[in-house]
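pinging the channel bc i need a second pair of eyes. not urgent but kinda urgent?? the chain im working w is below, pasted from the shared doc
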Amino acid sequence: MIYQNIIKATEEFDSKYCIGVGSFGSIYKAELQASQVVAMKKLHPLLDGKISNQKAFMSEIHALTEIRHLNIVTLYGFCSHPKHSLLVYEFLEGRILVKLLNSEEGTKTFDLIKRANVVKGVANALSYMHHDCSPPIIHHDISSKNVLLDLEYVAHSSDFGTARLLKPNSSNWMSLASTYGYMAPKPAYTMEINEKCDVFSFGVLALEIIMGKHPVDLILSLSSSTFTTRDMLLKDVLDQCLSLPINQVAREVLSIAKIAIASLHTIPQSRPTMQQVSQVLSTQKPHLPNTLFMITLG
């Protein structure tokens, strides 16, 4: 990317082009040459003027350079300049998932069929990263603020600033940087990062999507030794603003709820793989290890 073109397109990063601010940087919408509209992430600077998060910057580049997947945002290029470190992505006209879930539109147009497809999209993205990339890529920050939707409500996983390439036959350790409320309990004690951390975060996100809110109370209940889901009804894990589904939609949402809860198992090894999750959601045949809980249609 030519730095001068970026400066011109954003009028030196004028705030009117800023469309979002994250933990690692600010996102700008800009039109480059040939009328190409892109989203650019400019990493936050430190107080001394140096560019912060160079490690995150290089991590995102390495993670995304070779990735081409329907449900993962496309990285067009990057620019490393003494003043700024930039990542240039495809621009999506849709919404950020967290904003949609917390908007009036979320209760009117974001129905269970669309929500189920978003869950499947995120599952497919993670399955691809974990099982089809070499070495495997761990996102480590799966949350509703890092899922972008296009105008057709197709999910695109984004923000790979904390992503790590899993090296085989080696321990993978890193500082905690994932979003609060989605982080698996295991790393808080061992600091070791593996695919099962993403599986847990996916479970939280999947429940958030069908419940319309973060499932903090349900997660706390699941971690209780006295809690049982044997009598849990489907309506207990659905957005109260939506009508109860029937027939195939009900079975699909039920499958999502079951596999999401299985993904929250306190023992990482007892969680399914994202490949299993993706296969279950695509076939709607809930064949998983004996870690699934009983949820009934009611």
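so The longest helix spans residues 112-131. and The mean pLDDT is 81. — does that match what u expected or am i reading it wrong
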